[in-house]
Give the backbone structure.
Amino acid sequence: MGCDVGMNDPSGDASTERFLVVNADDFGREPGINQGIIEAHERGIVTSASLMVRWPSARTAADASRSLPNLALGLHIDLGEWISMRGHWIARYEVVDTNVRAAVENEVARQLTDFRRLVGRDPTHLDSHQHVHHEEPTRSVMSRMAQQLDIPLRGVTPGIHFCGAFHGQTAEGEPIPNAIILAGLRALLTELPTGWSELGCHPGVGQDLPPPYQREREDEVAVLCNPSTRAALSAERIRLASFRDWGVGASELAR
């Protein structure tokens, strides 16, 4: 997914400041993904992560987050995963039928309950695995949840521009190696608009990362942790922020 410009901030703030949330998806899926996200937060520029509560490593991720006070933690709704094979989309797994509203509503509510049980609080933001919430009925189900929790929903909440171009594969699994090198990230930073942006990423380390996105996760960690990346943010006058800061407002963060 590329960089999609969202609507203007409803607050009407005409600030020329640029605020960037760097959000790591798939937290809790595998130990190597947990390790990569933590490393990219502690040594790099990751400020937020999205937790997949259905997976065995979710509890470890939630426990680790308690010692990472600057890492905002959201909910990564997981309704299934699909891969492209010979031009056809094949399900690797399906949690529910995403065409059935009642099934989606029940599963989304269950995953929020699991998040609260694991983390002990509400998520700071919402998004979904493979962006399934871009389609109905998941979009309206998750939009209602975001409104009730008063938190942003990726690509839906006005005022947050989402950039998904820091990703080393196309949707069909074809490699895009230049997207996850330092020069590629610098180019994305240059193009960010004023206001709020979210940069999606998928860091991970180790030999047991799940296919098809494996080596690319380690490449992402290297770029996210490269000191030159922070230098590029500084040169572009981009301020790192997290989804905890979203309700604060640009005027206070700019001080």
Summary: The longest strand covers residues 18-27. Residues 5-14 have pLDDT under 50 and may be disordered. Residues 161 and 197 are 4 Å apart (CA to CA).
